[in-house]
Amino acid sequence: MKFIHVNNISYNYSQKQVLKKVTLTIDQGKVLSLLGPNGSGKTTLLKMIMGFYRPSTGQVILEGRSISDMTPRELARRIAYVPQVHRLAFSYRVMDVILMGRVSRKPFFFRYSSKDRAIAARALEQLSIVHLKDRPYTEISGGERQLTLIARAMAQGADTFVLDEPVNGLDYGNQIRLLKQIADLAEQGYTFIQTSHFPEHAIWISDRVVMLQDGQIIANGSTQDVINGPNLYRLYKTPIGIVEAKNGMRVCVPRLMRDRHHSSEKQEKNNAQYQAA
Ligand SMILES: Nc1ncnc2c1ncn2[C@@H]1O[C@H](COP(=O)(O)OP(=O)(O)OP(=O)(O)O)[C@@H](O)[C@H]1O
């Protein structure tokens, strides 16, 4: 089911055009990964989808309605932004941070209700972090913080999560566990849009991949179709092969590293092959 439709969006920061006629759709209950080199416009595109910035041309449509016709509160009830792991200025308990997700559902003066607390408790359970609920947010690890921020987004009641490099700064184990958590939540019907600098992470959990270069989409389709050597070369300017493990899982092999291990291979030949593609 087509859920979010990004329709022909362009955006300029003063004179500089950073998004050029970007069109894509996001299906409900799926994971979409945005890949692209530094400065290609990934974060700017996320900000458009969140309604933080208004596009110069084009529009973002959520279930048939332009998000420019929605109030920030209305939008926050559907789409939640999960920032990169950050530090809060004050040492709130994890439970309090998650309860903050309920604010968009409250009048100006409010107290948290028992329903709010039950929703926050459920989010703690869904993210398997019940044991952290009374810990100060400032004293938990980066991975635990990222899970807390996703729990806060869930407590907001949103069904779509926009994540900017969610594994940034996490150790390898926590990266894998966080991505597994995202894949599991997508199975339950939640929708995810993430930016990533790791094509393999896109292979692991994405249904769809969009490649951005200089603010333009250069590839958009199923993960299987989009993540291939020629597209990765176009994006990152370094040759990367894709090999299939025995269990069918696809793995990225940077040729520059492979050539260190097989010095008899002709590196120029590989480069020529990818440059020609
Ligand atoms: N507030 C701003 N004012 C002016 N230019 C900006 C601003 N934010 C981003 N840019 C520029 O817009 C372009 C796209 O930036 P953006 O942050 O969207 O890229 P990105 O693909 O997310 O990059 P990265 O992978 O490095 O996080 C870059 O050239 C950047 O310098």
TrEMBL record:
PROSITE patterns: ABC_TRANSPORTER_2
GO molecular function, one term: ATP binding
Pfam family, one: ABC_tran
Region spans: Disordered: 258-277
UniProt keyword terms in alphabetical order: ATP-binding, Nucleotide-binding, Transport
Domain ABC transporter: 4-239
Superkingdom to which the source organism belongs: Bacteria
PANTHER family named among the record's database cross-references: IRON COMPOUNDS ABC TRANSPORTER, ATP-BINDING PROTEIN (PTHR42734:SF19), METAL TRANSPORT SYSTEM ATP-BINDING PROTEIN TM_0124-RELATED (PTHR42734)
Protein name per UniProt: Iron(III) dicitrate ABC transporter, ATP-binding protein
